[in-house]
Specification:
The chain is of the alpha+beta class. It folds into 2 domains: about 170 residues, Transcription factor LuxR-like, autoinducer-binding domain (Beta-Lactamase); about 110 residues, no CATH class. Helix content is about 35%, strand content about 25%. It is globular.
Length: about 300
């Protein structure tokens, strides 16, 4: 079995040889995964390796108009949450004993889109959590044991590729013109955007460039906002912040904080300063933890 599963791992590793950014790598790997595991929709997020909060999404799902709701429910769902998986792969139907209604996100949203099963994969190593992937099946089909074995077999290779790609961002050329000024979004409790500062759109366009005639989707802000909601509900204790590579050697920090009245959540994107970026470089380079300002 080890030899049989080793070949797919080698193939997906070769896929990454010609990919020099996280989105291209994920697109290429999804094409390879689809040759072995069929799926109808997906969401693949890169995460801050320390806070494990998503920051750079790549998704094709039927409920995009309800993206804020999807992200909020995903973070508030305890079942098969990427921060709780003890194995690389979890399956909705298999892990609920055929009772998917035990999953909040399925019960409140995905059941209405006839999602029949979800395979959740976390990409984690001893240096941190680098991303998570949800594959959806729609219309009654479920993921099988051999398919779960395949996903588990490729997870370490994908994790290594994701971490190495993050490390490479620190040796890129100096950043060009970057957004300036304070950027703040006010999110309602359902994560709908209530207001934002003028500079916010420039940050969002730099993070996930939209089509020319469309406004950028503040998916990164939704993620830190959803983490804040999950944290306040006791679902997960990680801080509501994430660092994400913007371009060249520039990184963006996203933070969410609640107001006492909880009528809105201020979410602030800003360029990361050298100190916060340093710990990402340490983790992505496979070095030991940074303690007391020294490498140990």
């Amino acid at each position: 079995m080890a030899e049989r599963l080793g070949r797919p791992a080698e193939r997906i590793d070769r896929v990454g040889d010609n990919c020099d950014d996280g989105r291209a790598l994920r697109v290429a790997m999804l094409e390879e995964i689809a040759r072995n595991v069929r799926f109808d929709a997906y969401a693949w997020l890169l995460t801050d390796p320390e806070t494990e909060v998503g920051s750079d999404p790549l998704a094709d799902v039927p409920c995009l108009p309800k993206l804020p709701m999807l992200i909020r429910l995903k973070y508030s769902t305890e079942h098969n949450r990427w921060t709780r998986l003890t194995n690389p792969v979890g399956r909705l139907q298999a892990d609920t004993g055929g009772e998917p209604e035990r999953s909040l996100v399925w019960r409140e949203l995905l059941s209405g889109y006839h999602v029949s099963d979800i395979a959740s994969v976390v990409f984690r190593d001893r240096f941190g959590c680098w991303g998570f992937l949800d594959l959806w099946r729609i219309g009654g089909r479920q993921f099988t044991d051999p398919e779960a074995e395949y996903l588990a077999a490729i997870a370490p290779v994908v994790t290594h590729r994701l971490r190495r790609l993050q490390a490479q961002t620190f040796v890129a050329q100096r950043p060009g013109i970057l957004p300036e000024g304070a950027a703040v979004l006010l999110l309602a409790p359902d994560l709908q955007v209530r207001a934002q500062t003028a500079q916010t759109e420039a940050y969002l366009r730099a993070l996930v460039p939209p089509d020319a005639d469309r406004r950028p989707v503040p998916a990164g802000a939704y993620n830190v906002g959803a983490q804040l909601i999950a944290r306040e509900a006791g679902v997960d204790n990680h801080p509501a912040r994430a660092r994400v590579h913007l371009r060249d050697r520039a990184w963006l920090s996203l933070r969410a904080a609640g107001w006492p009245a909880r009528t809105a959540t201020p979410t602030s994107p800003s360029l990361s300063k050298p100190r916060p970026r340093l710990s990402v470089w340490v983790s992505s380079s496979g070095l030991m933890a940074l303690r007391h300002g020294k490498l140990s």
